[in-house]
Structure formats: structure tokens, C-alpha cells
Amino acid sequence: MAHGPLLEVKGITTRFDTRHGSVxxxxxxxxxxDRGEMVGIVGESGCGKSATVRSVLGLIRKPxxxxxxxxxxxxxxxLHIPKRELRRVRGDRIGFVAQNPFASLNPILKIERQxxxxxxxxxxxxxxxxxxxxxxxxxxxxxxxxPDRILDGYAHELSGGMAQRxxxxxxxxxxxxLIIADEPTTALDVTIQGQILDLLKRNxxxxxxSLVLVTHDLGxxxxxCDRVVVMYAGKVVETGPVREVFSRPWHPYxxxxxxxxxxxxxKVKSLPGRVPSLIDYPVGCPFANRCSFAxxxxxxxxxxxxxxFPDGVTQRAVSCHADPEEVSASVPxxx
Amino acid sequence: MDDTRTQFGETWHRSVRAVxxxxxxxxxxxxxxxxxxxxFFMPLPFSPTRPDPINTLQPPSGSHWFGTDSDGFDVFSxxxxxxxxxxxxxxxGTLASxxxxxxxxxxxxxxxxxxxxxxxxxxxxxxxxxxxxAITIVTLTGNRLxxxxxxxxxxxxxxxxxxxxxxALALRESRFIEAARAVGAGRIRVLRRHMLPNxxxxxxxxxSLAAAHAIVVIAALSFVGAGVSPxxxxxxxxxxxxxxxxxxxxxxxxxxxxxxxxLTVAALNLVADGLQARRESEH
Amino acid sequence: xxxxxxxxxxxxxxxxxxxxxxxxxxVSFEIARGETLALIGESGSGKSTIGRxxxxxxxxxxxxxxxxxxxxRSLEEHDLRSMRAKxxxxxxxPYESLNPKMRIGxxxxxxxxxxxxxxxxxxxxxxxxxxxxxxxLETHHAELLPRSLSGGQQQRVGxxxxxxxxxxxxxxDEPTSSLDLSVQxxxxxxxxxxxxxxxLSYLYISHDLSTVKYIAHRIAVLYLGEIRxxxxxxxxxxxxxxxxxxxxxxxxxxxDPTVRPANVRKLAGEIPDPTNLPExxxxxxxxxxxxDACRESAMVLREIDVGHSVxxxxxPVDEAEWATDAGGGESR
Lengths: 335, 283, 332
Hints:
The complex is a heterotrimer of chains A (about 325), B (about 280) and C (about 325).
Chain A: E1 7-18, E2 21-33, E3 38-42, H1 49-56, E4 64-73, E5 76-77, H2 83-92, E6 94-97, H3 101-104, H4 111-123, H5 128-141, H6 147-151, H7 160-172, E7 178-182, H8 190-203, E8 210-215, H9 218-224, E9 227-232, E10 235-241, H10 242-247, H11 252-260, H12 296-300, E11 317-318, H13 324-328
Parallel strand pairs in A: 3-8, 3-9, 6-7, 7-8
Antiparallel strand pairs in A: 1-2, 1-4, 4-5, 9-10, 10-11
Helix pairs in contact in A: 4-5, 5-7, 7-8
Chain B: H1 4-21, H2 23-41, H3 75-108, H4 113-126, H5 130-141, H6 145-172, H7 175-183, H8 187-223, H9 235-245, H10 252-282
Chain C: E1 4-14, E2 20-31, E3 36-40, H1 47-54, E4 62-67, E5 70-71, H2 77-83, E6 87-90, H3 104-115, H4 121-134, H5 151-163, E7 169-173, H6 181-198, E8 201-206, H7 209-215, E9 218-223, E10 226-232, H8 233-238, H9 243-251, H10 293-296, E11 302-305, E12 308-310
Parallel strand pairs in C: 3-8, 3-9, 6-7, 7-8
Antiparallel strand pairs in C: 1-2, 1-4, 4-5, 9-10, 10-12, 11-12
Helix pairs in contact in C: 3-4, 3-5, 4-5, 5-6
């Protein structure tokens, strides 16, 4: 096993060309995921988190295009390899779980058939009788009782939670090293959410895989992730170990998000203003118009993500001109 | 702040903007307007109703741009003059159909047994080939212009009713319709202020198509001798007269009125396409 | 006297294919003036259905609904419509709840046109402007169409529309669920301030515990159309007595990573299909503390303390008995 992070995303920049102009959806986004680590990419709608992971997976289609950056999986760049190879890597080494499980499952094929298709697409031809035991094993691993009944059935017979388990089982069946999950529990009930996140964690990071989880829910990040990447207007504004970032945020936006969480007894503090246009992208820091720590330099010069160590390993970094100590001193302490 | 009047003014402004932004609407409308103006105001080289028996079946030339037909009529003059008859008939018929069909369609969207029965009746009605139906109506009621419009109405009202009803049924499930009820709006207010403005878009697009179809219906009618009677100029009549000349090689008698019909229909379809594209891009 | 009194509300739906969905099963509650009662539950709990039945946007099958002393269910169409000035609703999806072809000013002015038709045009405009200001919008917003506004602004319009007739009761159906976190905070602030200034009663429907904790005074926990537990917010949240309440509360993830619940109380399996309700206690198939009696008879809400009632027959359950491994639960 090589040293260094399993996944290194460096400077991804993605544009969408629309008739209103070019949407700067992802701007020089960098982050990494180690083996056995769960990384949470968190941000509000339009921050570019979904576009980022789709760029990493090579799923960006016209009118979008990835204009810059590298995605290194175990040292190997995924963005500049032929499509056919990428398709092999995707699925085989990277598993993907999307928000809507019913969009990932084929409504007219039996579940067993879909497992079979996934496995044979990457592992070569084999008979159904040999893929079935593997499918059953995977359904077991995700906690589905009576897997045979599920295998012989169809997607529409499943509840949301069950369907998502099946999708996860399929992703796991190829033994990927990295799993990317884009809001996997947003559409599910609260009590099911915990079950799904638990099984994702159990089957991925607990077994040495990496898991990149995209979510808008701070609670999910706080309770499950090891590291957090906070995104705003297509940029990474802060990244670091979850406990450190949440208790002592360095970026005013992270601070603002934490202050927006409603707490009984305290007046909830809301962030003024609005997200800037991704088409008329502002000069300087995109958060400046809403930031209580902003000063002149912020409006003229866009901050870069730092500190970044020479070998590219980033433990904790922020993209801001303000003094991180000042920002973290304003964290709400009252409970 | 809240008149139905202002709402129509609103629609006007949006229409003007639509025409500017979507070239196909401008082109299509432009062609139709030019044809109308030409039909009414253009000074014609020859009389469209007085034949010149000496110069029959002349091919297109410097004096007769489109040639002459078997009676000696100047094809160009008659083609242009027909625009002043066929187009207004089609447009008027369509307008009448909209004014009758849209409110009926809205009313039919209420969930009553009456509305179900009407719709089933319409189903049966619409199973007849429409052009035959039109011919029957005009033949039965008399060969007058008003009856041509009646035929167009009879054909189009069911279409609009069906379209508006299905749009309205979908709209009824919208959250803002529920909100209107929650706020205390009665049935009439919901229809007038919430349903109607939201079906106007689809009505407009459909009207253009209906007008295009009406042109064809009118031509078909006069082709079989129903509707406009000679010597009044009408594209259908001209095509009928010219059809006989096709075998003798005098192509100009039928081709030019045929092209006129084609052009009008195409222009109206362009408008409909442009309107539809605009609606799709807005959502 | 309470502003709202609901007794034994039931509602069933017929699904295509003939199955009967028992959406709401004998629900009763009260809301005092100026108070927020939160209805919290997951899918199939019936919370949205109850909200709509309260305003008769949906007709209940049986039960009594009294608002400000008036028996809502017996009102004729005309009287019901006038009653609507006093009871309003804010929906979950801000954009969908606004007529896309109507200007904001017209949207907020419509309730006044309906309920106060004698207002002069300028008086009406003044009222609309004042209400827009109260929700943090500006007068120029009145000229815009909904699509020109952000999600948060659209929701403010929804709130303004609900408040312009000065109602006593507002049903809030997941008002912040479709909004971003930072916008959610703005909306909660507005709702909270308005409750104070106008002495409003709220029926706050949600699945999100954190917003409920912020705004509610009392809470009713729903499962499969029944109330499992009901009482003052602090009591129910600090010391839940029903197994479902415990599971729901512990399933909510705290954004503070240092707060790790010692035991995560889990329920086994999935929420049953509401067309096929379990025998006996609705929870018994999934419940870690069930006993045989749970399967036999349906459980009734009983009061274990002033204003605090619970359905579980075993309540109060000793913490030690709540097995952490039974029913698929695990500690994090």
C-alpha cells in the first residue's frame, strides 16, 4: 500500500457554459481523503459540492467542462485518461452512491440482474449462479434481512431506506477503495438516516476504505466525519479535522453556519445578504459582501487556501485574509 | 394594483418581449402581417374579379407575374387578394374558438359528472374526420362566409376545451392553487386570477397552430365548392381551378396559390414553435 | 379557553388499487393563544394531513375541530371562507406556493381583497407594505414576480400572505425544510418575532428537531397517525418516555461533534406501510422494550404528569432495560 492519501483532488475548476454566461461552479477546489478516513464536503445549495464530486468522477457533460486540475487516485491522474479506462476505474476502484436510490436502480430489471450486470461489467463474464452468492453476501453486509426475496424482486417494491441499502451493496460488491456518496440520506426519514450512515461507515472506513460524503447537514458531518471541507460559491473556504473546525472555525462563513444552527434559549444568528452570482463572479473574496470580518483587501484580492505544506499534505487550511484567531473567538459558547 | 385589465397589459408587454427575443415568432408574425397588408392595401396590377378572356392560360411574364388561368384571371392579383379573405377568416374563426373554448375548458376542469359527460361527448364528436365535418356543416347551413367561421369554431372549440381542461386539471394540483383556497378564494376567483393567467401561454401557442389548420380547412372547403363562391378569390378555389390544368402542363395556375397556403401555414407554425420554445425555456 | 381544540380526528385515504391508508387515527390536541405546538414525525406520521384538516383544506372523516370556539367542521362554505381570515397556512415549498404569474404585491393583497373588501385601494396598499416590512422585505419587492426572488424571500412572501389578515392561528407546514441553513435561521427569527408581536398561535409541523426545539412550547410526537407522546417541550426532550420519542430524539444528529449521545436508541426495521397497520401497539414490531401485551391490545394515551401524556404501556421505562443491541441499535 502506498503512503500518502488515497485521493488527492488538486485545483479542480469546472465551468458550465449557458446562454446567460459561464457559470463558475467549481473554482480551484483541492482536498484529499486518506484510507480509512471519512471526509465530509459541506455547503449550502449552489456551493458547488455536487459539481465537485461529479468532476472528480468524470461525470461532467456539456455544457459543463472541467478546465483545470488533477484528480489523483493512488497517485494516478483520473482526469486525463481515456474514457474507457476511466469507466473501469469508476465502479471498480470508486463506488458512487447518489441521493435518490430509485434513480440509480433500473426499474425494469430484477435486483439480482442489476448486481449481475454491475459485477460482469467490471470483473468479466460469469454466470448468474456465481454472482448471486456475492450479491447475497453484500445485501447481508448492509443489513437486509431475507436477501433472496429482495434479489428476486424489483426496485419499486422497496422503501427508500431499503433501496439505498441495495445501492450501497451494489457499490460495495466491486470492493472499491473509495466511495463517494452525494447526499445519500437527505431523502430518507430521520430514524433511517442513522442506520444508513452507520452501515456506510461500517462498510467503508472501518474496513480501510475512504469515504467522501457530500451533505448540507452539519449534524451528519459532526457525528460521522473525520475531516470536513467547507465550500462556498464554488470554493473551499476551510478544511480540517471536524472537531477542530467546528469548535474553532477559522473562516467567517463556517462561523456563520455554526451560528445559524437553532439553539433553544439563544437568539439564532442569521447570515445577512445573499450568495453572489456564479456568472458575474466577484473580484476578491466571494464571501466579502456578507462577512463581518471583511476589510478592503478582501474585496480586491481573492484569498487562497493556505497553509498548504510543500508536499501537498493539508492538515488544516483556510481561504481568508482575516486573522483565524479572531474568527474562532466568536464561536457561540452557550448551550 | 390588481385588475384583470392590468393582467392583459402585462401579457401585452411580455408578448412584445417574446417577439423580440425569439426570432421565429418575429419571422412568422412578420410574414402573416405582410400578407394581410398586401391583401388589403396593395394596389393590384389587374382586377382579381374581372377576367380577361383574351389572355387565358398565359405563363408567367413581365405583365402577368404569375401568369393567367383558364378564365383569364391574373393569378398574382388573385393570389394576393385571397389573402384578404382567407387569412382574416382563419384568424377570426380561431379567435372565436378561443373565446368560447378556453372558458368552457376551464369550467370543464371541475370535478363534476357533467364535465365528464361533456368530455365523452367531445370524444365521439372528434372521432369524425374534421375536414369532412367542416364540409358537411357548410353544405348544410349554406355557402356563406359566416358558416365557414362556424365550421372552424366547431372544429376548434373541442380542441381548445380539451387542451385547457387538461392544463387546468394539472394546475389544480399545484401548491399555489391550494394556497389560494387557503386564503379564502372562491371558485370564480381561482379560475379568473390563478388558472386563467397560467393557461394563456399554452392557449397562445395552440391558437397559432389552430389558425394554420384553419387556413387549410378554408382552402379545402373552397376546393370542394363550399364556402367561398366564384368569382371571389380564394386559394382553395384557385387550386381547384388550377388542378385541372396540371395535366396540360400549365403549372402556374395551381402552384402559386398552393405556395401561398404553404407559406401562411409555415409562418403560423413558426410562431407556434417560437412560443412553445419560449415556454419551455422559461420553466 | 384554548384557541384550538381538536378531538378524535381521523382520516383514511383510498389508494389506487383499493388499499386503505389510515393516515390519522384518533388524534386530539389543544393549542393555547400565543403558543406553538409542534407536530413532529417521519413519513406516514400524518402530520401534514392533520395540518390541512385543521384548516379544512382536507376534510376529516370524524372528529371535532374548534377554533376560537367555532366548530369548524359544521361551517357552511360561505362562513368557512370568512373564518379563513383567522386561520392561515405557510407551505413547505416557497416557490410552488406562489402563483408564478402574480406580482408579490398582488399575492399579499389578495387576502385583503377577499376578507376586507371595503378597504380603499390606498389603505390596502398601506397594509400590504406594512406586512412586507414586517417580514423583512422592501416595498419595491411588491412589483416583482416570484421567480425574481430567492427561496428565503419567497418564503417571506408566503408568511406575509398568511399574516396580512391578522389571523390568530397559523399552520406552518415544514416552513424551513426546503431552505438552506443560513436562510432557515432568518425565517425562524421572523416567525419567532411575529409570534411575540401579534400573539399568534402556531401549529408547527416538522421532522427537524432542531428547529422544533427553537420555536415550540409544546410538542406532540406522531407515528403512523397517532400521538405517541405529548407535553411541554423541555419535558419531552429532556426526559422522553415513549420508545419512539427516544428513538426519534436520539436519531437527530447534533452539529456539535463533542456531543455524542452515550447510547443511540434504535428501532429495528422500517416504518410499516400505513395500509397495513400492525396489531396492538403500532410500534411493537420494532420496539426494543416490547412485551407480549404490546401485541395484543392497542395502546391508549395516558397522562403521566400534568400536560404530559404517553402511549407506551411500559412507560416510564428504566434506562437499563433499554438494550443497546436489541433491534439493531448500536452505540456510536
